[in-house]
Amino acid sequence: MNRIKVDTDGLSWQPAHEVWPWHRLAGIDASAAPPAPGVFVKVLCRPEDGGGCWCALLRFVPPAGRAIRISAVAASDEEVFILFDSSDRDRSGSFTCNPDGLRHGNTFVADTIAFVHYHGQPDQVLKLEMTDLADVAP
Known about the structure:
By secondary structure, the chain is mainly β. The protein has one domain (8-135): Jelly Rolls (Sandwich). The chain has strands spanning 14-15, 38-45, 54-61, 66-73, 78-85, 95-98, 103-108, 112-118, 124-132.
């Protein structure tokens, strides 16, 4: 067994669809980097690194006046810890565990960074879209 140690400050944010193609958000420049709008990732470990799991930082940056809405089915047990949420909702510090097979979703109204641990395969994303803030319940 090998220990995995990553300096996350040394990793660049990359468009999430470059790692997981189903994380492509229509209507934005998919090659941009934050703080441009989009969904971005810093991969911390992959199954082939040992342990058979994915660990990543996911960053959701909605455009002004819009939100990013995602709905998915957990393809393995998934743990999500919100590290940073710049919205007035400030969900920083919240934790969610989605068991394998659970349909779930989230709406990001401002720049948000989450640590995500997939025990096996990453989520099967059903929908990833932008919506107007006016259409998002408080």
